Amino acid sequence: MWIGGLAAGFFGLLGAVARYGCGVNDNGLACRGSGSTLGVLIVVAVVSVVTVVTVLSHERPPRRVLVVGGAGLIALLGCFLAARGLLDTV
Predict the structure, then answer these.
(1) Do 8 and 83 form a contact (C-beta atoms < 8 A)?
(2) pLDDT of residue 32
(3) Measured by CB atoms within 10 angstroms of the end CB, which terminus of the chain is less buried, N or C?
(4) Residue environment code for 38-47, b if the CB has 16+ CB neighbours within 10 A, otherwise e
């Protein structure tokens, strides 16, 4: 869970600062202020998912940990894909 959170958060951070690597005439989503805002929201979502999964799986039965962990990994995959999509607009 933590490794997935690190990967998705890393790409979210890259998306948040992508506009600083854009040229003057680039007009992709990542090159605008709204792209940076979207990147920050992705990072906040990643931190939230990892925190919620950690709290909900503390001292729980193994089956519940697997269900909550699986749902968390699916959510992190969505964050990762959103961050990659944001970076593809550069």
Answers:
(1) yes
(2) 82
(3) N
(4) bbeebbebbe
CA 12/CA 79 separation, integer angstroms = 8
Task: Please identify every stretch of the chain with a pLDDT value under 50, giving residue numbers as ranges.
Answer: none
Q: Distance (Å, rounded) from C-alpha 24 to C-alpha 56?
A: 46
Please check whether residue 22 is in contact with residue 34, taking contact to mean a CB–CB distance below 8 angstroms.
Answer: no
The gap between the terminal CA atoms of the chain, to the nearest Å, is 28
* Residues 19/33, Cβ–Cβ less than 8 Å: yes
Instruction: Round to whole Å and give the CA distance between 81 and 90.
Output: 15
